[in-house]
Amino acid sequence: MRRTLGLFCLVWLVAASAHADPAIRNVDHVSIPVSDVARAARFYETALNFEADEGTASPAVVLRLGKETIELHAAAGRPYPADSRSNDRWFQHLAIVVSDIDRAYSQVTQAGAKPISPAPQTLPAWNPNAGGIKAVYFRDPDGHPLELIQFPPGKGDPRWQSKASLFLGIDHTAIGIAGTDASLGFYRDRLGFHVVSGSDNYGIEQEHLSGVAGAHVRITGLRADSGPGIEFLEYLAPRDGRPMPADTKPDDLWADEIVMVARAPLAGEKLRDPDGHAITIIGPSKERSQ
Fold first, then answer.
1. What pLDDT sits at residue 263?
2. Whole-angstrom distance, CA of residue 173 vs CA of residue 159
């Protein structure tokens, strides 16, 4: 009887703990560690048309593009690995939506971006969930990967069809993962994100986009109630992507952080997802993207 009661109490405590996990209302911004805040800010402003939201004084600057914001903060840790590949699981990028990808990529390259893709790629029509999307990968001055993405009519948020400006906003942040099921258990089941899209991408266009020979990527898109989404990139091939270094510290330059807003005011909570990507949870009073 005591053993049964003890087991019941343990199950109740686990269930209560799971229920107490914060339900996320939205992704507020992504915080990016950089070696030189002023240099990084100039690149994002010149190459991508971000605008300073709260000044450019170190050790951090908040930049806005459309409705979305990012934070660049000074970090003195290890540099972004020079041999990084898109299937390494520390990979994380911002997907920046544009109205004319050729013109936008020309501006980005003139500002000094380092290419990952050889040129913008148009995903093939045989892929119903991704066909017609145009995208290109490149790196900022510290080596962080970034993506320009242009949605055809009928795909993406309707606001991404605007022609009012060249750079429109941030659709999502994409993260390298080892397994979709484990990541769904964290982002969907624990944090409350909703699955909104999925595709199975392979072929020469995906190889060129990723800069990875033989790339075959299972992509899953998730969203909270508002704000940018989170996109899983599970490389089904090649399977040689390297895990997040176990000794990753917040000031290492690959240690981007996703800042999320909980539904109720909570003290700051810092989490790691199953692949080591960093998450900070804040209360509504501290959000920046409004």
1. 83
2. 18
